[in-house]
Amino acid sequence: MxxxxxxxxxxxxxxxxxxxxxxxxxxxIHSIIGPNGAGKSTLFHLLTGYHQPTEGTIRFEGxxxxxxxxxxxxxxxxxxxxxxxxxxxxxxxEENVRIATQSLDENRNSVWKRSDSIDSTRxxxxxxxxxxxxxxxxxxxxxxxxxxxxxxxxxLAIAVEPDLMLLDxxxxxxxxxxxxxxxxxxxxxxxxxxxxxxxxxHDLEMVMEISDRITVLNRGAILKEGDPETIQADEDVQExxxxxxxxx
Amino acid sequence: xxxxxxxEMDGVYASYGSGHVLWDVSLDVDDGxxxxxxGRNGAGKTTTLRTISGxxxxxxxxxxxxxxxxxxxxxxxxxxxxxxxxxxxxxxxxDLTVHENLRMGGVTGSEGIMTIEEILEWMxxxxxxxxxxxxxxxxxxxxxLAIGRALMSKTELLLLDxxxxxxxxxIVxxxxxxIETIKGRDIPILLVEQNLNTVLEVADRVYILDQGRVVYDGSIDELRADEDVQLxxxxxxxxxxxxxx
Amino acid sequence: MIASQSLPLLAFISVEQAAFLxxxxxxxxxxxxxxAAGFAVIFGITDVLNFAHGAFYMxxxxxxxxxxxATGSFFVALIVGPIAVAGIGVVAxxxxxxxxxxxxxxxxxxxxxxxxxxxxxxxxxxxxxxxxFFQTPELLAGAVQVGPIAYPKYRLFxxxxxxxxxxxxxxxxxxxxxxxxxxxxxxxxxxxxxxxxNIKKYYTLTFALGTFLxxxxxxxxxxxxxxxxxxxxxxxxxxxxxxxxxxxxSFAGAVxxxxxxxxxxxxVDTFVPALSGFVFYILLLAALLIKPEGILGDYEIxxxxxxxxxxxxxxxxxxxxxxxxxxxxxxxxxxxxxLNTVMSSYGVGLVALMFIWGILALSxxxxxxxxxxxxFGHAAFYGVGSYVVALTxxxxxxxxxxxxxxxxxxxxxxxxxxxxxxARLSGLYFxxxxxxxxxxxxxxxxxxxxxxxxxxxxxxDRVELLGFVDVSDTVTFxxxxxxxxxxxxxVAKRIMDSPFGLQxxxxxxxxxxxxxxxxxxxxxxxxxxxVSGALGGVAGGLFVTLQTFTSPETLFWVVSGDAxxxxxxGGVGTLYGPIIGGAxxxxxxxxxxxxxxxxxxxxxxxxxxxVLFAPRGLVSFYAIGAELLRGERGPFGxxxxxxxxxxxD
Lengths: 248, 245, 649
What we know:
The structure holds 3 protein chains of 3 kinds. By secondary structure, chain A is an alpha/beta fold. Chain A has 9 helices and 11 strands. Chain A has 2 domains: 1-70 and 212-248, P-loop containing nucleotide triphosphate hydrolases (Rossmann fold, 3-Layer(aba) Sandwich); 77-202, P-loop containing nucleotide triphosphate hydrolases (Rossmann fold). Chain A has helices at residues 40-47, 70-76, 93-101, 120-131, 146-159, 176-193, 204-210, 228-233, 235-242, and strands at residues 2-11, 14-20, 23-24, 30-33, 55-60, 63-64, 78-80, 164-168, 196-200, 213-218, 221-226. In chain A, strand 8, helix 6 (176-193) and strand 9 (196-200) form a beta-alpha-beta unit. In chain A, helix 4 (120-131) packs across helix 5. Chain B is α/β, with parallel strands linked by helices. In chain B, 35% of the residues lie in helices and 25% in strands. Chain B has helices spanning 45-52, 75-81, 98-105, 116-122, 124-128, 139-151, 169-184, 196-202, 220-225, 227-234; strands at residues 7-16, 20-29, 34-39, 60-65, 68-69, 83-86, 157-161, 189-193, 205-210, 213-219. The radius of gyration of chain B is 17 Å and the shape is globular. Chain C is mostly helical. Chain C folds into 2 domains: 18-304, Orthogonal Bundle (ABC transporter involved in vitamin B12 uptake, BtuC), CATH 1.10.3470; 331-556, no CATH class. In chain C, helix 14 (345-370) packs antiparallel against helix 22 and helix 20 (499-509) crosses helix 22. Chains in contact: A-B, A-C, B-C. Chains B and C meet through helix 2 and helix 3 of B and helix 6 and helix 7 of C.
């Protein structure tokens, strides 16, 4: 579905992403893990056109998308969420979702129709129900609890009806219970809407549980790739994560 | 808790943005000890340090330092009183040189515990790079610089937020050695870590935070022996395969 | 302003001329560097565009002059005067900026604009509006032989003094403890505080340094320029242009750019005097288009400037709201009942002018209040509208519909172009480029006198609607202006309620996220700019029809500043608030000016108070009042029904 070859991004002297060959299959949930500073978020920035790669190619559904603008890439069917919620803080939850669903509406640029009367408004309502955010429809996004903000953050990515959705630590800063529920919700919606999920996650326990395939990044490069069992048993991965072993 | 502790947090509630919240957190640090503060991502460890250093003001409860209430004292004044804070992600001034960053540490003129020359002698890697902009340093070098910079100012208590985060194993060793050197000079440290091993290596005592509450406190040996606690709050089994980063 | 007072040059081409050109370029360049230095320092450290910079420069000239009169020593005055100005700067900063550094640059711009108004009026109260002449100190009078030519001593002194001051400032910032703290604070305030630095104190000191430098530039410049309250305008523009070309936040960049502009100006003055007034703007536009971050700039626009955000949404009132209908009814009856009883025809005209300013402030609100783009150049559309109506009436037809149609078309096209040029810039660059484009048009209206009548402007007589109704009749015009105001409001509200309007607000809240939802945000910005420009053009076209006269004043940046003021005074981001603000501002203008010569000082005060204490303007008073009223009236159940179905924007 998505394939990168020799994908590299340097910022001055720093190589944030180093010659990454990543293949994302259509089936299953794919997670990208790695210690802080491993280049996970930068990788997402490259895949979604936020940063332009220094080198390498990105193919999505057989088409080269490196160097394309974020807008074009969304149109091609890749959406994303951000590690730090980037919401329309001064607007209500309903408006946040509506601006996202509206992006696919034929009337998206109309200056005369009422924005709450066009077809995509119904989609916004459905999505709010799916996310269990309906009761906050008229609440400003910046007045939501952290957990609900994270939900809305993912909701905006879902609303543009992608084929592939890149979620950057969707449960960041949420408690165990909240995280588990959130992941459940995301999986259910992704299944229903036939969206392929790629996650960056911190919580290894959860990653091991839900992923079908895991890529481990370390210092900008792919350290290991495989199914959860393989990754869990791998000594290099443990080393990268835990740092120094006991008594060494 | 002893009334004459160097630092006391007493029933502190705090909120920062949304999601990072402290609930009734009480802890103390005594002279000369290294105290570890452990917990998962989002447990409130950084918020605790930010509250002590005055960046965030508690909504309830009190912070006392050297017997004085510093709850309402502005952050820059808390720094002048001797709490040096090395934030997560180092936060060196990227466009200042290494030397200028160190000068900034001692800029308020209060007695630091080391001079620039001593720090550069102690950290030869920085000496070689002292005229370079801090943004050109590696992560480990930036961490050393941030610690050195903190020691340039009056330091009666050092707050370290995840000093080994994202560093290569060899560099982690260097940082731990640095922390031990500081400990050897009898400077009390409150050390936030996700990496259990670092804490086991250098700390005397430990608090564990979970969802903004103190859920455990005890000595290092007690924690080492208590695998249930390790597993429950830190997600660490003895085989460590389940460790949360 | 300084640029138009080009230095005299020999009229022959020779080695001598080359020498003059070089020295003149250097003298101008150094002067520009000096003028820009304080502005650059304040911006580089605190991210504030100090619109009062020119005012402090002017006060510097006056106080230096005063000290010369008192002590007889120019050199003493050159130190004492600027120190006094720095003291004024400290007071001004503590009372205004120091409380709002964390707010949107919109408020920084406005509050320093308020300081500018107050300082300018104070100078006029103390020294009058006339021009004062500054004797060149005897020691520096006359000329001295420099190689093949005799060159005025004082200019050589300026070059030297300017170089010393610029170098001194650079050394201070680069090597002193003070400079270290400033640079560290500019990079990361929070971390600087963790080092024990009270950063607010240093911001105040930065402002003191900036105003000191402005004042010393004023003192140095005054012997070869006349000293008057207007002199600050030119200096402000120079500072803007030099700092933007050099790179926001880069002191060294300002030095390079100042010299570059100086030499270019000297050369253009010699070889193409017709373009003399355009040098700044052409260089600035070229710089922003080719290298928007400036020659030496590495300023990260998006990192620093806080976005415009509101604690509370105040939705536009629907036209069908009972209070609005009542107000409209009253306004419809006003000329019928009021003319010759409570008001003269002048009064009716005044109310019509209030409508015009309502439209102008409304037009600004669509781009600034709703889309979050701070336009400091809306005078461009107002002025262009007025000139197009005037020119069409004079040269083509006196049909109001046709001339207004032309005005809307031209203003919208220019605005679309401005939007296209500026779309990739954000935050403060946006304010600067719109400012520059506005001033470029102003300069054209002054210079192209064949077309525009130069600074005399253009007069028109009879304008007709549909060939028979005389729109020049005040009462007829009143109804026309009211109709256009209502129509403008309806259109603007309709747009803000539309999917496109929601998109605009999304851009204000987070442009990045809007892009990641698949929207073409640059296209949206161009479009709303065109709409806004069209509305601005309507206001300008109405203005010239009412006054039967237009002049470059309509294009001057102060009009842009007043429009921003009106918008915030009434209530930014509410559509109806700016209309109220425009009406109140113009009403105050016309009424206070009768009783009080220095009423603009009062305006400055109001502006500062509004920014500090009521950033959502007059409508927030109304909202608070209405709540109180509803609370009191609650038990009787007679509160206004909320227009629920019309809400939502």
